[in-house]
Batch of 2 targets.
Target 1
Amino acid sequence: MLDIRYELTNARKEKPDSSALGFGRHFTDHMFLMNYTEGKGWHDARIVPYADLSLDPATMVFHYAQEMFEGLKAYRTPDGSVQLFRPEKNIERMNRTNDRLCIPEIDPSDALDAIRALVAVDEEWVPSLPGTSLYIRPFIIATDVQLGVHPSKTYLFIIILSPVGSYYKEGINPVKIYVEREYVRAVRGGTGFAKVGGNYANSLIGQRKAESLGYAQVLWLDGVEHKYIDEVGAMNVFFVIDGKVITPTLESGSILPGVTRASCIELLRSLGYTVEERRLSIDEVVDAYHAGKLDEAFGTGTAAVISPIGMLDNTDEKLIVNEGKIGKIAQTLYNTLTGIQWGILPDTFGWTVKVKE
Ligand SMILES: *Cc1c(COP(=O)(O)O)cnc(C)c1O
């Protein structure tokens, strides 16, 4: 067990109205902190009142973006208990990201202890309205105070919690997507597979352009040939062509290995669908569309779970997918995954972890 020092506050904040939470706008009463010092390792795990951080302006993270983050959720089940969805997957990914960014690894069981302990302390903040959850944001920042460029010798691991609303309050509406041909999100050999703030800073301009043109998100193509599909916005992407489910392979290193992506693949295979993980070009999607074989397209991620694509704007042509409606496979995935996450369906895969034993 990770040895955690508790410094709890009695000054509890007023909880927001569960029907109007939005995403990432409210934060709970406490946060988890743990320091790293070279030679000493990770130390001083503590849960303290949620508060501002005080950092020297020369702190490395502000200048060179040596930072990583994760995102997962805690769900309130019908019996009132609270559970996590495959947290060990997020922790494995956290350490792969750490490795890429020269951030020291965290013992996976310590990371899980930290998440569970913090959610247990602020358990009252896990909302219970349908579709609502408690978003968990672990992140690590480089804290050396100096401007030379090399990996920091000190770090701060922080976990904050945010009650979040239902992503689909007015039902699932398929979104319009812009196929981006100028900007790229990631390249082979870069940080595309790692969950780092820098990837997001780099992708904002594409997102802004798509929004200004009236689209919800960008379809990112590979950074070398601008031909193969990588992701949609900050989600993994799936296409259903002629009854087969196809998602881009992780082999390029430019795609974030989503926990939702992996879960959709396992679930679909267990239901008897053919799922191919391979390179998929935008031209193949367009050809399938013209042949009347593009059945469905959707994004996957922790926030929305499944986000159907109703239209793809491919510069000279607008492809309307499944008449702009959610498809059968997307709907099945959404119902099954959310059912397991909120404890409404039996967890036959053993994917959920209770916060308190
Ligand atoms: C987090 C993230 C995803 C989705 O991963 P999940 O584990 O399913 O939430 C997809 N793409 C990017 C770029 C991401 O940052």
Target 2
Amino acid sequence: MRLAIAGGQPVRTKKFPAYRFIGDEEKQAVARVLDSGVLSRYLGCWHDDFYGGPEVQALERQWADYFGVKHAVAVNSCTSGIQCAVGAIGTEPGDEVVVSPYSMCISATAPLLYGAVPVFADIEDEYFCLDPDRVEAAITSRTRAIIAVDLFGQPYDVEAINAIAKRHGLYVIEDAAQAPGATYQGQHAGTLGDIGVFSLNYHKHIHCGEGGVVTTDSDELAEKVRLIRNHAEAVVQGKGHKDLTNMLGFNFRMTEIEAAIASCQLRKLNSLIERQRANCDYLANRLGEIPALTPQKTRPGAEHSYYVHAFKFDERVAGVPRDAFIDAVAAELPVTELREGEGVKICNGYVKPLYLLPLFQERIAIGSKGYPFTGPDHTSEVCYDRGICPVVERVESKELFGHELMRPPVTQEDMDDVANAFEKVWTLRDQL
Ligand SMILES: *Cc1c(COP(=O)(O)O)cnc(C)c1O
């Protein structure tokens, strides 16, 4: 028998079914909004419509109920939601914010938008979220906050990181973009820090086009997020809002159509997560039999929501490098319907450590003169050299692989094909 990458027959050629999570409910909801004639109902001044239209407000109530949090504020992306959160906590030029190098870029770059500087702390070897010891070591007298990411759908180390934040008087912003439906000790991801942010973009568990939701139990933070979302600078006077810190507003408003879709999507989240967990558990059991592969563990007390199903690869055990092995597995499998040209949903690594982005290497963010990295507010330079976070560099370059093949309607039979592809490559790896 030969590996497909060496010209043999692949394990499977029938495409994997596409994750199609938009149904009749969403179509009816969109039609209802179109019939109303009101596609968005915000006004950027102090008026009844400052808080948005009926669909936006209904989604916010539904979201707050579902996640068990006092306030949910709908925005037009998680990116803008994180920006609102960083602004709402009163971030100042000269501040530092401790961030993870292993995430989507905005969870590291958002502080820059308010003149603060990100400081990277390394990740945990096992769970890939911020390592509390490294967070502690990164804290200085200038630190204002920690942005903790629930990477791949795994909650961050809530107890340790929240304790550090409390001890040093810092805010925790939780980037829960990848973790709707994950929990820690029964409490939802997105409500584990002072302020949480979700994403509703196409790649996430539930989606509405583009969208995000900010969650918090704090009345004050929620109101600041609502102001930043909708032209705060033009609203504060009419509203009688006294604290002008970061009350530069933007237009980060979600439309009525997106809110109506998101509401339908949220109702399906439980059943989606249940099916994903079953598929991931099943596959992890089978792949766990292969000596070089270790399925990602779930943190004690947590429930994972599987945005990505991650594994670690041990090249010393396998005798071949990760990339050669995973490329060979991918060659045994077909693409997914709708993903023509995008390849099989299995990846070597996730993202390059974020401090290696040109933005940090060149220290050019706002304007061309190095602000805010250098200048009057930042007297000591933060280091972004290769090597500052050795765990993430090793995990990304040699060890981690992940897949997104668990999304329904795939079944255990589809997972069997995936497992068979891994087993075939394992058995025949000397052909690589
Ligand atoms: C997707 C994602 C974001 C950004 O979400 P958008 O809604 O596209 O802005 C932020 N953080 C993480 C961890 C993400 O995965």
